[in-house]
Write a structure and sequence with these properties.
The complex is a heterotrimer. Chain A is an alpha/beta fold. Chain A is built from five helices and five strands; from the N terminus they run αβαββαβαβα. A five-stranded parallel sheet of chain A has the order 2-1-3-4-5. Classes of the chains: A alpha/beta, B alpha+beta, C alpha/beta.
Chain lengths: ~150, ~450, ~160
Amino acid sequence: MGVGTFFTSKLDEAIGWARKYSIFQYPFVTACCGMEYMATACSHYDVDRFGAGLPRFSPRQADVLFVVGTISHKMAPVLKRIYEQMCEPKWVVAFGVCTCTGGFYDNYATVQGIDTIIPVDVYIPGCPPRPESVIDGLMKLQDKIAAGAQRY
Amino acid sequence: MADARELFLSEGVPSGGDGSQHLHVNIGPAHPAMHGIVRIFAELDGETVVKTDVEIGYLHRAFEKDCEAGPYNNAIPYTDRLNYVSPLINNFAYSSAVEKLLGVEITDRCKYIRVIMSEISRICDHLTCVGAGSMELGAFTVFLYMIKAREFLWELVEEVTGARLTISYGRVGGVKADLPAGFDLKVKKAFAETRQVLEEVHTLVTGNRIFMDRMVGVGALSREDTIAWGITGPLLRAAGVPFDLRKTQPYWAYDRIPFEIALGKNGDNFDRYLVRMAEMEQSMRIAEQALDGLPGGAIQVDWEGKAIPPDAYVDLGKQGKTEGLLLMPITLSPNLQGQDRGAHDRVNVHDKRVVLPTKADTYGSIEGLMNHFMLVMDGYGIRPPAGEAYFAAEGANGELGFFVVSDGSDRPYRVHCRPPCLPPVAALPKMIEGEMVADIIPTFGSVNMIGGELDR
Amino acid sequence: MDGTAILARLRERLGDRLLATHEYRGDHTAVVSREGLVAALSLCRDDDALAFDLLVDVTAVDYLRFPGREDGPRFEVVYHLYSIGHGHRVRLKVPVEQDDPVVPTATGLWPIANWLEREVWDMFGIRFDGHPDLRRLLMYEEFEGHPLRKDYPINRRQPLIGPKV
């Protein structure tokens, strides 16, 4: 391993470290999971200590798209447009079982998992997931961000 | 409504005689102040809103069709997710509608438990509404304080039901299980914390110049309009009409518990905020009185003989100290479902057609086993006679009604939920036309639109 | 006013436009014909003794699979009314045939009927004659069919984007 590779790999690690502790999330909140999202973001289960406490309510300013709550077929084009408006590097977290697989809403109105529309990085199942699960998912996301893996 | 191309071409359509042009702005559905799922297509003249079109349906999850697909108790998890900030009220209102259809009367203790849990849920709903509304106006501290109070209440709900949010606690004929031991002390502690939070919020926001400027006189709806638009709940009470289903058509144990109705005067956003704050205090009062008057006595279970807690029992067994262990009674919490005949019978109707027998009966006697079989197998189960019934409870937003039609089989033929937040959202154009764009935010916040209930 | 008195007053004023009345589990119901619907609703709202000023709900039921009612009219539009002054309730039902699913609108009497009837149109396909703006409320415009009808399968998906599974 040459000296050049040492510096770039250290640089990558440094960038990964900086990125993972400054997550600007776009909480795309639709349904009940939003209540647990609020609980995770507030004082009791503080997500700000992970550097993820500032939600940017515009996709242009965000890098992690938290899809929180059931996505119906009426909402799906809106979700896709929001995802496309974000610039790279971006990650998507499927929060709640409705976004992972459609949950128990196997009917005419619900998208059976948002990974049929946009690529997803971390799946947090639960109906709704407890804040501890959310924090676990967030830490897994941080590992992924630090590793620099991007799937387009 | 208009797609992107129409929007672009129609922008600047001349209107108004002075040559000014109106602007079309699309607010939502992915907008934080719209709580993610309502689209307001507004036509603006500068900052003033001239015309709006409100579009909903972005969270339609086919609740009514899903309820037809399974037996009566299967609809309970779907009802949790209707008004997901006060799920217990939905559970109990649906169960009461089916009980009305069956002609079954629940036990007294169950009525009191439903009242206590409903009031705790109502406080959670108002905390979330006022907190989120204040956050959208910029008072982020109020939001953090109210969510902190909500956490204390969710700990209470978790003690009783096992989950924080989607609890599926109600059952047709009763509730899942009794309250746990020591619940009244925990409630006292949680309410003390909540009262402190309400005090702090009052000092922060109620007399605050900025808050009052943004909320007083904004989004007002006259008394006649409010009734004509079918609006009930805190918005109707803020307009001065003392209509509360808990007083006018009392159900469960509300006729035995005195409390006051909070009334406003002008029907504007500030009055709605004050009504909600007052209602939280009244809800705490109701829950405390209900706990004091709980029939069936205190929540402790009486056991004869020496009783040991279950973890000690397991430890003794592991250590090999098994002499006489089989004869010792174990103190299990009364809020474990199906485990103890006494606790089960206190909160569930003694009706074989409706309520599952306890574990002791199911495994211990042939009648219990057959009863369990008849209630659980496909095609059997709870079968109300053919007919229809409508039951209305006072939800956090107003009259929450369930219209259940039965065809005599074990599946509901039709379940319809009358959402209390649909009329205010339908009346939203009336509330915001003529106001400024910035007034849409507090008005929408005070309407407390809950998507699960609105779109079902 | 007690429920039987309400039904008696309706019967006295509506005559043969009132097809049937019944009471079940404390709920009083009047079945009116389609032609008499607007008269019945106006009577309910404007009569001093009835004074039903709150239109609580408008919904519908599809009796296609109901055992014993397969030959009768397929739909029934159900109106729930409440009087804030008197504190009483009533339910009005209108039978609607499958080939001619049209009912006069109640928007002129209560403005909330606008959205409630839009929802019935969306979910059941029952048109409301005279409605100012009858379009879908909960589903998107491109959706075909009316989902709460009994012959619409629960998991027939018509996605706007994404796979058709």
